[in-house]
Amino acid sequence: MDEQFDLRPLLEYIDPATCSYTEWAQVGMALKHEGYSVDDWDEWSQRDGARYHPGECERKWGTFKEAAGSIVTGATITQMAKDGGWQPASHDDEILDWDSSLEVDDLDRGYRLIDTDYIKGTKLQKPKHWDPVDQIKRFVQALYKPEDYINYVTQAYPKEEKDGTTKWVPSGNGVYTRTAGDLLKALDSCKGDISLVFGDPNPQAGAWMRINPLDGNGIKNVNVAKFEYALVESDSLELERQNELFRKLKLPIATLTYSAGKSLHALVKINAKNKYEYQERVQYLYTVLNQNGIEIDTQDKNPSRLSRLPGFERNGDKQFLVDSNIGLADWTSWKDYIEDLNDNLPDIENLNDLFDKPIHLAPELIHGILRLGHKMLFAAPSKAGKSFGLMQLAIAIAEGAQWNGFQCEQGRVLYVNLEIDPNSAKKRLIDIYQAMGISHGNVNNIDMWNLRGKTTPMDKLTPKLIRRAQDGHYSAIIIDPIYKVLTGDENSASDMAKFVNQFDKIATELGSSVIYAHHFSKGAQGGKLSMERSSGSGVFSRDPDSILTATPLPVDENLRTTHVIDEECRFIAGKIAKYNPDHQVPEADMMNVRKMDDHLMSAFVDLPNKQPLLQRIAKERQQVKEQAALHTAWRLEGTLREFPSFRPISYWFKYPVYEVDHKLDTVMIENPESHAKWKKSMQDANQSKNEKAQSELEEAYQQLVDFHDDGAPVSIVELAANLGITRQAAYKRVNKSKQFEYSSGQVIKSKQL
Fold it and tell me: I need a labelling partner for 416 at 20 to 30 A (CA). Which of 190, 350, 387, 652 fits?
């Protein structure tokens, strides 16, 4: 069992009563895999009183065998808990103990909303007619339901303080077997004499009440039945300033009580599902309060904490209810309010000196394309060589070379590799360097972060990336490809706005350009603007400062033949230059194979061992021709925010590099005939894909039928979990199938068969 992370608290977020049989079993399998006992599974299962059977967990536990492909890990419990509302704690997923101290200085944001220097204070409105019964009733009614068990303490003993004063502290457990309804009835019948309800109170000590409902069996944290309120009190500020601060922060306060001492006791609505969520929310609350000048006694985070009960006297002063149900309505509303205020946005700037000072733009990283600290999207179809293009760009920046005809400023590059095996990625870089024909003298300008198989959603990856890269002084961060870290619905504007904001964070925090790759949307691209070709929401096409798109060009037989001849002639010219550099080849002969053959023979006529050399060259020449026949043609277009548009650039993808070729400039994107052929091939591929999907569906359905030893039907949720796809995707598969039907959440064999 992992000592660093306990899965058992997460079970609080998973209701066994809502689990399918498969999900219930998966929880058990995950617990067994991670080293927990059957008792942990059994204890959790007991929460489903309707379906729980003693001994069933133990019998099932023995059947769990970890065959290949059937292992269920703790990640399943983690995901189910997330679906139930659990969120990792802000400090490396650490769940606080009740006695742990709060560390507010380590938080990313300050949450400083109010300057206490300008707080004058709001005067307390003391009740004109102090009625103890009315005070207690209003307090209890504001906090508890009639059926809630409550605990109040009226006994106290004197404690000598270090400064010589005497402090009265609660003594004993008080009464904890009474409900709020019982107490209210007793108060209604006591005719104003609270001693008939509480016994004779100590006028020096006052009285207390637990801040949360209990289970009626005790007064400790384990006895807390509902995690609804947290106690906020502070002795560091004057009472009037406490009163004003609580109100200005719009705390969702259920009751605000004067303690007849140095502080006001505010019971803040936490509305937590369980103790773990309670801890997280209290930590957040205390963080905000501390950052706004309210020093909190950290012992107050205890959910069974006692708070002052109005309606009692203390040292000659009266404990009274200052106010109730003030501030925002609930925890969610208040947290949203705080987050909205604490947006870390810059101040509004007046432009009165707009023409008085020179404006210094960020330097160009890729001349005419991208500035330092800006964002660039490189979009192309799948398997178009995007990674090769981005690696070529990384080398161009590292060496201060050109990329597709655009000059790059030399700088350091971090290449975030999300897809390629690390050694394969390194081999690609070597091949690209060699194909570009440039020195690798500045290869130390390239760092690579290999995350294949270790990716996390972009919002989780961003802070980790920033932390690792902050001392790297990178000119560019290249993220390839982004589909590996995509979060949310690709076609949702709101989801994608949150996603691309992560690139802004990286660029802002590191001062680096952020360059990332994405694939094209489906369908023909010829009638679309370049910025409309990338897949997903229009946010992708509007957010980057620069968008470069690579679109395939149809290559007819004549153009292909010309290209093969060009490559063949270039190869021959290269061999002549290598073995006989004194031999001059006129430029007019460079594209004529027959004349280049004549030059080759002439240049090699006097070379020793020319025959074996010519034989080897002939083999290499044939390979060049074969490779040239496989080269793909592309058109690079751009939509730029900071620069004027450039003329589209045509190039060949000559594995592993791009090479500009103006002979392609006249080729139109998407010849209708070639597109029809492409569409036919895609249809054939999709047919094969659909057949495979239906086969997987049949197999998954049969597995679940066999798994259900009680003959229970197969649900769409179970089917989706077995296939490892979403519920919607599973529904679509069933809907396309002729063998299955979907009805009321269940999947059944089609009646038509």
Answer: 652
Return the C-alpha torsion angle 560, 562, 563, 568, nearest 10. Answer: 130
Q: What's the CATH architecture for 673-749? A: Orthogonal Bundle (1.10)
| DSSP single-letter state for residue 716 | H
Q: Which residues of 409-440 are buried (b: 16+ CB within 10 A; e: fewer)?
A: bebbbbbbbbbbeeeebeebbeebbebbebee
| 402: number of Cβ within 10 Å | 15
Q: Where are the domains of the chain?
A: 8-83, 116-341, 364-520, 557-669, 673-749
Element spanning 553, H or E: strand 546-553
Task: Give the separation between CA 251 and CA 240, rounded to whole angstroms.
Answer: 16
Please calculate the CA angle 335-107-256 and round it to the nearest 5 degrees: 40
Return the CA Rg of the chain: 36
Q: Is 55 left (phi over 0), alpha (psi -120 to 50) or beta?
A: left
Q: Lowest mean pLDDT of 290-294, 600-604, 660-664, name the range.
A: 290-294
CA distance 542 to 539: 5
28 within 8 A of 41, measured Cβ to Cβ: yes
Rounded to the nearest 10°, the torsion over CA 432, 436, 441, 444 is: -30
Six-digit token string for 385: 């060589």
Q: Tell me how far apart the terminal alpha carbons of the chain are, to the nearest angstrom.
A: 49
Cis peptide before 158 (omega within 30 of 0): no
> Each residue of 343-396: pLDDT tens digit?
666 678 889 988 998 888 999 999 999 999 999 999 888 777 889 999 999 999
Q: What are the tokens at 732?
A: 């679509």
**What pLDDT digit, counting tens, does each position of 230-272 carry?**
999 988 888 998 899 899 899 999 999 999 998 999 999 999 9
Instruction: Give dist(CA 98, CA 624) in Å, integer.
Output: 71
Residue given tokens 């949150």 in the structure block: 498
CATH 2.60.120.560: does it fit domain 364-520? no
Q: Which residue has the tokens 């009638």?
A: 527
What CATH number does the domain located at 116-341 have? 3.30.70.1790
